[in-house]
Structure formats: C-alpha cells, structure tokens
Amino acid sequence: MRHMALSETQTFGFGENVLRLLEKEKDALKKGGMDIDAVITTQQSLLEAAVTANAQQHDLRRQAKSATGHSVAMTRRLYVVSSGFLDMAIAAVEKDSAAAKDFRRLRSEIGRPPAEEAAPVEPEAAET
After folding, report:
1. pTM above 0.70, yes or no
2. How far apart are CA 74 and CA 76, in angstroms?
3. What is the residue extent of each domain of the chain?
C-alpha cells in the first residue's frame, strides 16, 4: 500500500477538513455508534498541537539561523582583533627582537583565515 506524502500545509488543511466534516455529520456519526464528541475533541487537540509545534519549529529555525550568523560574525571579529593585537605586540617589542620572534611564530602556527574564494585558475597547457 502506497502513502502519498503531504506537505505541512496540506496536512493541516486535511485535518481541518476532517474536523469540519465530523462536526457537520455529528448526528449521523452518533447514530452509527461513534463517540463523536471524543473524536472531535481529539481531532481539535491534535490539530492545535500540530499547528503550534510547527510554529515553534519555524521560530527555532529562524533563531538558529540568526545565532549562526552572530557566531560567525563574532568568530571573525575575534580573529581580526586578535590579529591586530598580535601586530601591535610585535611592533611594541621591536619586530626583530627575540620576543617578536615568539609572536611571529604564533602567527605562522595559527595561520590566517582562508582568503575569499577566488575563481579557480586553469593550469596552462604545456606546449608540445
């Protein structure tokens, strides 16, 4: 048996349509032996819970995206400020001193952040 996947919007609409039809046919369903009041209460509760959970999930996704952007910006700022302070320290102890050598070594060990992505350079064809 195959099941068709529905989007969230389609599923919410489906749930609402089922609820409306259950309410419309309440008397007939009671006559058929269905505990329609319990069914309607359950359907309403599930629909509300699903809509609320979906709204919370979308809000958390927005918050996570914002937090990621802030984290990236703060990490970049930390690097820029730390690099500037390292440059200041090297200048303060004179660039060619033993102390400056330690500061320069720190810079070379850590490296630099990757440069902005440049277009790939095609290797030149060898002449034959």
Report:
1. no
2. 5
3. 8-110
The residue with tokens 């609402």 is 16
At 5, list the tokens: 């996947």
123 three-class SS: coil
Return the C-alpha torsion angle 21, 24, 28, 30, nearest 10. 90
Do the beta carbons of residue 82 and residue 58 sit within 8 Å? no
Handedness of CA 96, 81, 77, 109 (dihedral sign): positive
* Sequence-distant contacts of 11-16: CB under 8 A, at least 24 apart: 11/50, 12/47, 12/50, 12/51, 12/54, 15/43, 15/46, 15/47, 15/50, 16/47
Contact 12, 49 (CB under 8 A): no
Digit-by-digit pLDDT tens for the chain (128 residues) are: 566 688 999 999 999 999 999 999 999 999 999 999 999 999 999 999 999 999 999 999 999 999 999 999 999 999 999 999 999 999 999 988 988 888 888 888 876 555 554 445 555 555 54
